[in-house]
User: What shape does this take?
Amino acid sequence: MTNGFFITKHLILKTVVITGAGKGIGLELAKTFASFGFRVFALSRNIEQLKILSLTNPTIYPVNCDLTDKNAVSHFVATLDNSLVDVLINNAGVLINKSFWEQSDQDWEIQIQTNLLAPVRLIRALKNHLSDYAHIVNISSMGGFQGSVKFPGLSAYSSTKGALAILSECLDVEFQKQNIHVNALCLGAVQTEMLDQAFPGYKAPVQAIDMAEFIYQFAVNSGQFMSGKIVPVSKSNPNNG
Ligand SMILES: NC(=O)c1ccc[n+]([C@@H]2O[C@H](COP(=O)([O-])OP(=O)(O)OC[C@H]3O[C@@H](n4cnc5c(N)ncnc54)[C@H](OP(=O)(O)O)[C@@H]3O)[C@@H](O)[C@H]2O)c1
Assistant: This one.
């Protein structure tokens, strides 16, 4: 039986690479993909929670990787040997909440490195590991969605997320011959540590586990129907509840 996850009677696990899987939405994504039988390469700098999780979820492989370190990314990809990656979720992100006047070059650089350059490098490094019909899902933000409500303090973060969304449109065109699909999801508020940094005290209407389930469904089902799309995933913003 072929149902998109398993092929023929020999169980072949599909493989997902998830960045920023140490906490928040990424951690919930790792759990969700594993629960649906995926082999999960879960990348983060802090992998303590992932290690504990992998004790009861043997298809989760915690990978200690600082995505801003070129060598660490190449090292991870080298460990894949001949494995193919069916889904890549570029979820890792960093947000520095400061007014435009206070954001230093260093603040801009770390956000550009993490939110934009890290996905670029990882996708490039995975070139020979992406399976036919692989789906790359870039996790952007409503702040990076053209025409959305903007908030003070988030100019650098939102700009990098906007760039990541446009990158997704561009890559889809570049990858058409390889049947690789690329989409960006622009998330609205989800209750995580990052949300607390952006909007202290605000209670989001969506929990990380629920967003992870949505992203999982999108990642496994939507690549065949849509590609090169920037999709807003939001039902509210911190101004209206
Ligand atoms: N929460 C929201 O409301 C919201 C809204 C819109 C978009 N998003 C996006 O959703 C994604 C997940 O956000 P979240 O809310 O779950 O944030 P979070 O709880 O702060 O988690 C961010 C993750 O990124 C990882 N990370 C950061 N820098 C890294 C680096 N250099 N190398 C490896 N991993 C790194 C962090 O792990 P380590 O520090 O352990 O490395 C952590 O696992 C982000 O891209 C964010 O921009 C979130």
User: Anything to note?
Assistant: Residues 19-20, 22-26, 43-46, 65-68, 91-94, 114, 139, 141, 187, 189-190, 192-195 surround NAP (CB under 6 Å). Helices lie at 24-35, 48-56, 70-79, 105-125, 155-174, 193-198, 208-221. The chain has one domain: 15-233.
